[in-house]
User: Fold Uma2 family endonuclease from Spirosoma rhododendri.
Amino acid sequence: MTTDKPPRRRRRPSSAGDVPQALVYETWQQKPVYYKGYRDVLAGIKSIDEVMSCSDLQGVLVSLLNGYLFSAINRKVYLISTNEVGIHLAANDNLANDLAIFEKEKVGKLKGKFFDVPPKVVIEVDIKADLVDFLNRENSYIMEKSQKLIDFGVERILWIVTDTRKVYVIDRNDPTWYVVNWSETITVLDDCTLNIAQLLTDESIEF
Assistant:
């Protein structure tokens, strides 16, 4: 499956002033992107913690990926960061990533703030953002966010979608962005490869 350029996003009027800052998942050029389910919080149906939390499969998969990559990459050269790591692209333009791999020499000393240098690789698991303002919903969000990361300098993005068991493979040096079954072995960086289905099987994870 190949993809074209990111589709244009449909914008709707928002009442951002009525939405608590805690419900802002990302900021795209000053425009807030809220957590999925934020309207339920405003309606009193859910708590903020409920919509900010991930599913059991998402949480376990991110943990497995972190554990696998920790022993599979050269940690003298690369730094792994997880837990919705913040990436600061520009003023009022901040993204969150499930897992990011940085080149240590580019990061330098940690500052206790969002990273302001591009990761070499980003891995995302599902989508935590509200998609109502994205024309084609899930696909639009993945394409637009991936393009922002590529423009910032990220070299490779792997976006795992658990309900369809697919992985978007996006590389800044390859104009063809494609989707594969997560049973396929894909390259993360250098000689490090990843097979999601095999990783889950090896850990006896049932879902």
About this structure: The longest strand covers residues 78-90. The chain has one domain: 54-202. The two ends are 26 Å apart (CA to CA).
